[in-house]
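Section 3.1: Structural characterization of target chains.
Under the original work plan, the team committed to producing a structural model for every single-chain target entering the pipeline before any wet-lab resources were allocated. The record below documents one such target. The sequence was received from the expression subgroup and is listed exactly as submitted; it comprises 410 residues.
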Amino acid sequence: MPDEYNVLIVDDQEETRRNVARLLQFENDINVVGTARTGQDALNQTIALDPDVVLMDINMPDMDGIEATELIQDQAPISQIVILSVQGDTNYMRRAMLAGARDFLTKPPKSDELVSVIRRAGAKAKAIRTDVQYIGRGTGSLKDPRGTTIQLSGLGKIIAVYSPKGGVGSTTIATNLAVTLHSAETPAVIVDGSLEFGDVQVFLNERGRTSIIDLTPNADQLDAELVEDVVLHHKDSGIDIVSAPPNPIDAELVSGADFVKVLEFLVRLYSYVIVDTHSYLSDVTIDTLDACDLMVMVSSQDIPSIINARSMLQLLVNSLNVQKNKILLVMNRFDKQVAISPDKVSHNLGHKVASVIVEDKEVVVPGVNRGVPFMLGDGKSKEIGKGILELVGKVRDQLSKLEHNQVPDA
């Protein structure tokens, strides 16, 4: 059965409202659910009726259609607005589009053109509703006409877990961070950004035929249904997984730009998009570090790791103009018997160690071998688990500070 599109007609002239309704009366898939004669009435009716499409006049007694469009986009963003105006110049069209209008038609509209535009705009509204209903976000919401809270898209955060030196436990941190951040209210997806030899599937004991290369070719036209078909669902934790390509040679098919487009779509569906990046500065890694909301940089106590961390911090801050408060430095595999303390590392790097995660092979190694993140088992109550919980708190706190443009501790 084809979709049906509900339409609200807004015009200060009663005759125009009747004429437009008459043009649409024989279209089985288009329902005129209401009319309005002022901008304020249009806003009230949109909130009350939740139409797929609002046909908006430019000239009204209380406010113009462009101002009304801005108000509706702010308070009822799912409804798509089509401007109808006797003014056909490009300036009006530009202002309408900047205000959030989906399309622009001059009066009087031709029947076939009007119907075609309504169907396109209505399909867009239906697609947005599908995306919204796909997964609960918990990071922003509005109420629909029935009083039901629906979650808005576009509010998730990209967290890149990165180390300039391999072998320091970045994937362990990324997987445990993902399962700990995830909840019904704040769903998480982990994306394996180590495209040649990614281990995220192994660390989570999952197997699947789909991967990032099933998404990147469609990077400009992604939808929630395609994502649902591609992600792996980790039953034990509830997180979703976007895997690396099963064949390492396919990694070269993924460009940094398309990889980031996928991440930017995923933040419409998930509160947290955790990317386990490769230490090698490929285009995919560089573009991810540039696009992420927060970078968790992992180091350890060994001198090569610290030297690499210092070089990378200098590159990020001095050459790539990355804000220091966008980088959370984590010391992993911390051994109290080693003289290199977090304070000394902070002083040496000129960047505070935000979180310390102790070495605990008895917890980590069995979990990795079984494909069970230790935060899903007894490790949560161990000292290493407390380190992850501390890191989760720091991540949430820093994201909040960045969102509100607060300057963190030096």
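The chain has two domains: 5-134, 157-403.
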